[in-house]
Amino acid sequence: MKIKENLSFYFLVLVVLTFFPLSFVLARSSSESYVIFGDVFSAGGTSTSSSNTYSLHDTIGEAAILSATSTSASYGIKSGFQELYADQFVTLTLEGSNSATVNLGTLSDSAPGSGSHTMQVSSNATNGVTVTVTGSTLTSGANTITAIGATAAASSAGTEQFGINLVDNTTPNIGATASGTAPILSVANQYNETDKFAFNSGATIATSTAAINTTNLVVSYLANIASGTEAGTYSTTLTYSVTANF
Amino acid sequence: MFFRLTFIFILLLLFSFGFVSNASAITVFSPVVELETEPGQTQEGVVKVYNETQETVFLQASIEGFAPGESAGQAVYLPPEEAGDHLNWFSLSQDELTLNSEQVAIVPFEIDVPSDTVPGGYYAVIFWSAAGDNQNNQIAVGSKVGTLIFIKVKGDLIEQGSIENFQVKPASVLYQLPDSFSFDFVNSGNIHLIPEGRVEITNYWGNKKILPINQERRFVLPGSTRVMEIAWALSGNSSFIASFFDRLKLELSNLAFGKHTATLKISYEGDQQNFSEEKIEFWVWPVRTIILIIAVILFFIFFIRINLKVKRLKKTLIENEQRQKK
């Protein structure tokens, strides 16, 4: 009976902690009249300057070009980070906890290996943003699977290939077209052709010339090997970078 | 009781550390930063990073050089051997961050410019990245978002720009008002420039239209050429029928008929104001206006002929009446 009581108690505790996680304490600060967009931590600036007649809580200034500046004939104030006004931003999100890796399975010379993952990009940057991919082709020690290169090509079983694209494909049946409420990113040439893949480290894969809404991108991966491809465990790390245009 | 309390304590400990997520969402604010400094000086700046997810993320900083890409305004990141020594000027107060959910980090940095630095423009990007976890037989995916840093080291700067290929689109003889104008701005100096100015369009009838350029404050990096387009108000409407009345209104209000002159006037701010000017001519034979004129003429011809026929008919009827009376 006692064991049953203990087990029931532990089960109850686990259920409570599962449905009421402690991350609630990390919610943003707000009231009826205001909300602090994001809790801030920083280094720099002294907390309080004072004299006999005043005290001032100050912060380190910003060099951002959109930072507000107040001036008169005898003083100027460069507003600090506590201002938290609307600003230009660039966001890159890799979707879901399993999207940090893509498994192509066991490769053979008769059929391609493929996989995909999603990511989202959003920005209100006036001149838009650019997404690039960097990294090496699939590698196992000193052996590599030849990357397709800058010019997109169709899947060819029995030929060493490694490439990506950002469209909906039928051969292999993976991927999806970039989506979102217009305006969104445009997929770059060579990465926007159905059933054709390319890979060139440093290449632009998506871009815009003005602010965009959240764009959902599905990156599809293709790998083929030849009969003479050296056996081994092949892997690589690819990094997607986003910066604003200037 | 003791074991229950111990169990609860251990659980609380585990949950209080939170989870470092495999997922990554990185936001930077103020993605373009301009700094001015002088040789031998130290300049401060900040970069701002935000975690908008519901989980804790771990980020690492890196600094790379960049150059202009082939497409206008896109940064091309340079490998370390090509990036330049100016990357060594940077020191970040923190190069690793652990951001809780919805937390912003304002990270100060300093640029310590050597006293023998040649005045000019120097360009770098501060990236925050969430590294992919490379496991066997898999592709690990990492992400990084950067803030572009434009550094102007003051001194004897070479601020030199020029205009090339000023043209009207789609052609110099048009059957409607032009979609846009374009020109190449060539920066042959050693500092980034922001060309500003306008296109002034005048025609034979004395009408004048002014189109501002580069309101987005686009940069042109030294040693590069950037194509700049100036759109006309209706450049988005390509269908003849769909845009018929809108374009007709524009043509009539501008008396857009015959020879036009477009004058491009550019200035770029520097230690002294610099100006460039370029002029082109183009002809407009507005199809919609011509169609309207023809339609009006045909209408009047038709109206006059109908009027004459009605008059003849009336005359015939009157004559017949008079004959009958007799």
Shape of chain B: elongated
- Oligomeric nature of the chains: heterodimer
Shape of chain A: flat
Number of helices of chain A: 1
- Could you tell me the radius of gyration of chain A in angstroms? 26 Å
> How many H/I helical runs of chain B?
4
Helicity of chain B, as a percent range: 10-25%
Q: Give, in order, the helices and strands of chain A.
A: HEEEEEEEEEEEEEEEEEE
Order of helices and strands of chain B: HEEEEEHEEEEEEEEEEEHEEH
User: What low-confidence regions of chain B span 5 or more consecutive residues with pLDDT below 50?
Assistant: 11-22
- The percent range for strand residues of chain A is 35-45%
Rg value of chain B = 34 Å
- Nearest-integer average pLDDT of chain B: 85
Mean pLDDT of chain A: 77
**Main interface by residue count:** A-B, 83 and 81 residues
Distance between the termini of chain A: 71 Å
Structural class of chain B: alpha+beta
Main features:
heterodimer, A: 246 residues, mainly beta, 4-stranded antiparallel sheet, 1 helix, B: alpha+beta, 6-stranded mixed sheet, 4 helices, 18 strands
Question: Care to give the gist of this entry?
Answer:
The complex is a heterodimer of chains A (246) and B (326). Chain A is mainly β.
